[in-house]
Write a structure and sequence with these properties.
The chain folds into two domains: 8-68 and 75-125; 184-273, no CATH class. It is 64% helix and 4% strand. The protein has helices at 2-7, 9-29, 40-47, 51-67, 79-92, 98-106, 112-128, 134-145, 150-161, 168-180, 184-197, 201-231; strands at 257-261, 264-268. It starts with a helix and ends in a 5-residue tail after the last strand.
């Protein structure tokens, strides 16, 4: 019975390969198009034990499509279908890692909509590989770089920093992005904890320097609050705090620059654009 069971897979495998080769031929001979993949629930029901093979063939089809694109093709013309296909492929077989990397490479920079779609796909990766640091790094990067959501990025990096093999970089990124999002007190508390967790005197010294800068920014936030209490409005720019509420705005050299997103004062790295 087992031999018969395995033999039944041979014609199915051959059929899948023939379909793939036929579609590759179509890509070569005609206009490059990509068809949306059916929902993963349907694919799971129809492919049975072949869901891994089906997901790999569907992924290769998407890869062939990308490889056949003409130079200058507007990614908005195919990104919706590509995002759908990667979502269904990864839902069908979450352990398949290649689609996660391809989604990160081909979708995130198209529009914020597709950066968010990529993060949804990466959520499947994090469920499938809960100890991997790659996928939360991708998610945090997308939240910061493409979606301008530093606080959400900070939370992703904070969660990743708790993983067994996480380097200190993840915790530090969480601190920096929390400060950029205006959560200065939370950044201070987290950085104080990081000071206690390291024996490296050089790293401690850098953390202490950053703590001092965060505390200076907290003073600016207090001045903003005092300004609001006095004038019943927030300042249009932080310069309005001088000289009534501050003698001068603090300078942070090349390390940080003040940000003002009413009602929150923040700090950001000048080079993190």
């Amino acid at each position: 019975m087992r031999l018969t069971h395995h033999l039944l897979f041979i014609p199915l495998l051959a059929a899948y390969c023939l379909v793939f080769l036929a579609q590759e031929k179509l890509f070569q001979d005609g206009p490059t198009t990509l068809q949306p993949v059916p929902a993963a629930t349907f694919l799971r029901a129809t492919t049975g034990y072949l869901h891994q093979l089906a997901s790999e063939i569907l992924f290769v089809q998407s890869s062939v499509f990308l490889g056949g694109l003409k130079l200058g093709t507007d990614p908005n013309t195919y990104a919706p279908v590509l995002a759908n296909n990667y979502k269904q492929i990864t839902a069908l077989y979450p352990q398949f890692v290649d689609p996660y990397y391809f989604a990160q490479a081909n979708l995130t920079s198209v529009t914020p909509e597709f950066a968010r779609a990529t993060n949804d796909i990466l959520a499947t990766a994090r469920d499938a590989y809960p100890t991997s640091l790659v996928y939360p790094f991708f998610q945090g990067f997308n939240l910061f770089r493409y979606l301008d959501e530093p606080l959400q990025a900070a939370e992703v990096f904070r969660q990743a920093s708790l993983l067994p093999e996480a380097p200190p970089m993840f915790g530090h990124l969480a601190v920096i992005l929390a400060a950029q999002g205006g959560q200065l007190q939370a950044a201070i508390i987290s950085l104080q904890a990081m000071v206690k967790s390291t024996d490296d005197e050089g790293i401690k010294r850098r953390y202490y320097e950053e703590l001092n800068m965060f505390r200076q920014a907290v003073k600016v936030q207090k001045a903003v609050n005092d300004f609001f209490s006095t004038h019943h409005r927030y300042p249009g720019a932080l310069d309005e705090l001088v000289p009534e509420f501050l003698h001068a705005l603090p300078s942070f050299g090349q390390a940080f620059e003040l940000t003002w997103n009413p009602p929150n004062v923040g700090l950001k790295r000048p080079h993190l654009k």
